[in-house]
Write a structure and sequence with these properties.
This protein is of the alpha+beta class. 18% of the residues lie in helices and 36% in strands. It folds into three domains: 85 residues, Gyrase A, domain 2 (2-Layer Sandwich); 121 residues, no CATH class; 75 residues, no CATH class. The protein is built from six helices and 23 strands. Strands 5-6-7-12-9-8 form a six-stranded antiparallel barrel. Strands 2-1-18-17-23 form a five-stranded mixed β-sheet, with helices on one face. This is Flagellar P-ring protein.
Length: 377
């Protein structure tokens, strides 16, 4: 039974979990199965005067002109100059915005499947609230169009401005369209012609890779009378499909097998938020620690000096300065952490603030008494 402890300001015991029940499919992913990123450029219309300023966003004006030209709307107001740009009306609308549209297409996505898309402003639009995305093709890294997106935006943030004050909440220039894209072309399907597969560990570790291999081979020897897994390295476990078994069924069977993953001894510190996370295998050799600080307080007290009656003196304001210094008594505490519970108990007994705990842990590491890696975020 291993335990995870979480430190947030003070050290608190999180819920005890047994790592013996971790499924293989929760800590690995099948090699070659990945999401495909899609991107597109489009226009959002229907904004209430919060769109791009066409003079400041020329790409928005060019996109509007191209879109209207394809729809048969002629914006030319006179003969064109040979070799020069077309003579166009000066458009002043602020009801549209140029946006980038992004989506993530999962593997094995079929034709007609819908995706959620994220719409982000490119120009100087102040808000996309109430807008509608016009038909936008979404392309992959190979330049092929895999999906088309269109629909009304859902924006969680807002921006309201007056003459002397502006109120904003969240990000009003980013919106989302649920099921806003439809797949027109299926992504490439990974294939293994030789009948081999591979599992990739989310957290690479040699011991975990060996445990996964042993668990799979123990299962396949009983069911298929042959070993099916070989550990390649700390990240990958190679699989060979048993004869007559489809990859989907085989991955479903081994995905429910349980292992006890090995975690490295790490201490993760976030100095900005004061968060400290200590891994279960962190150990500290016996050390003596004292921590304290000197506090200086300077107080300025203004006083009025009043001259005696019928004198030629002047009333002046003088300042009285008082300086006090205090330093708490230094208490030396002994820390030794053969296990995480003992270490946390010792740190709690000292009664320190998060910033003090961070300083002490870093000092213990510098002293060579901590057998763990410190990761500072």
């Amino acid at each position: 039974m291993k335990r995870h402890w979480l430190v947030l300001g003070v050290f608190l015991l999180a819920s005890e979990t047994s790592l013996a029940g971790v499924r293989i499919k929760d800590i690995t992913s099948t090699y070659g199965l990945r999401d495909y990123q899609l991107v597109g450029y489009g226009l959002v219309v229907g904004l209430q005067g919060t769109g791009d300023t066409l003079r400041n966003s020329p790409f928005t004006e060019q996109s509007l002109s191209s879109m209207l030209s394809r729809m048969g709307v002629n914006l030319n107001n006179g003969p064109n100059t040979p070799g020069g740009p077309p003579q166009m009306n000066l458009m002043r609308t602020r009801n549209l915005a140029a946006v980038m549209v992004t989506a993530s297409m999962p593997p094995f996505a079929a034709w007609g499947t819908t995706l959620d898309v994220t719409v982000s402003s490119l120009g100087d639009a102040s808000s996309l609230m109430g807008g509608t995305l016009i038909l936008t093709p979404l392309t992959g890294v190979d330049g092929a169009v895999y999906a088309i997106a269109q629909g009304p935006l859902a924006v969680s943030g807002f921006a309201v401005s007056g003459q002397n004050e502006t109120l904003t909440h969240g990000v009003a220039t980013v919106g989302r369209i649920a099921n806003g894209a439809t797949i027109e072309k299926e992504p490439p399907r990974p294939s293994s012609g030789d009948g081999t597969l591979a599992l990739e560990l989310h957290n690479p570790d040699f011991a975990t890779s060996v445990q996964i291999t042993d668990a799979i081979n123990h299962f396949t020897k009983r069911r298929y009378h042959a070993a099916a897994a070989v550990e390649r390295d700390n990240r990958t476990v190679a699989l060979r499909l048993p004869p007559g078994v489809h990859a989907t069924r085989f991955l479903a069977e081994i995905g429910d097998l349980h292992v006890s993953p090995s975690t490295p001894a790490k201490v993760v510190i976030n100095e900005r938020s004061g968060t400290v996370v200590i891994g279960a295998d962190v150990q500290i050799s016996p050390v003596a620690v004292t921590h304290g600080g000197l506090t200086l307080r300077v107080t300025e007290s203004p006083q009025v000096s009043q001259p005696a009656p019928f004198s030629n003196g002047q009333t002046v304001v003088t300042s009285q300065t008082a300086v006090t210094a205090s330093e708490p008594a230094g208490q030396v505490a002994t820390l030794a952490g053969p296990n995480l519970k003992t270490l946390v108990k010792g740190l709690n007994q000292i009664g320190l603030k998060p910033t003090d705990i961070i300083s002490i842990l870093q000092a213990i590491k510098n002293a060579g008494a901590m057998q763990a890696e410190i990761v500072v975020q």
